[in-house]
């Protein structure tokens, strides 16, 4: 088992997810306004010409677009809305996730690693996750045919001075619909080799605060003799004992992601956009807006199966690290603002 873990934020990668300072939910009922006449935008006519979609259908689509953004299961829209959206995105050569995601440089303003200021783009990379695009630190994205594990960055001591410090700009003017009623950032905490998704430990950091996150690791290690035992007796796997469809090395967490992707393909004929290493011998079609109804239908199935993972054929890890976290928040102080030159 690789050692060197300490009670510090940098024992594991962090993934930042931006959410709005002024979030709004559209799950409530929207009242009709029959006396309000909305003008038809000229851009609707342009979209209609480029996509060969009747302008009346384009107008109807934009009226229901807010429900599509919020993935509102209570709204009874048909799949035509998703097909129109896909046609528009094809013309513009864009994806929803990439178009609405802020870049890491938009909100990562200052980064300090082990007491030394460094360029944020050298420390963070934009990654695809089940939550959309994230900015990840110390996350190792393996190629499918990688032959050995890489070494993540490690701290040299305890305390925030030997860890990672980041100054974040929430950009309150950049308003958009969010799926949680909160303000600030969501930080996902997971192993460097784990794919970041909804099962990862996460912490919400409010705006205008100084947030300290402490991490305590629990290391599970195994003796070399365990490998000689058959799988049915030890009921666990080492990373090099199974190659999965989308991940080169085995671990329990990635096995769940791998299995859910294959369920989506079996039921809907596509895999989620965030699944890594899609460049396999098999041609995997990535889900698009027209698949939204099917994918949404099976979202609850994934949550149910996580409670009964025996059907997944995903044995536990023989060696792993689990984390417990503690979060402390306070107002900006003079020392902190001076440290970042504010």
Automatic annotation (TrEMBL):
It is a multi-pass membrane protein. Keywords: Ion channel, Ion transport, Membrane, Sodium, Sodium channel, Sodium transport, Transmembrane, Transmembrane helix, Transport. The keyword Ribosomal protein does not apply. The keyword Ribosomal protein does not apply. It comes from the Eukaryota. Pfam families: ASC. GO terms for cellular component: plasma membrane. It is found in: Membrane. GO terms for molecular function: ligand-gated sodium channel activity. InterPro entries: ENaC (IPR001873). Belongs to the amiloride-sensitive sodium channel (TC 1.A.6) family. This is Sodium channel protein Nach-like.
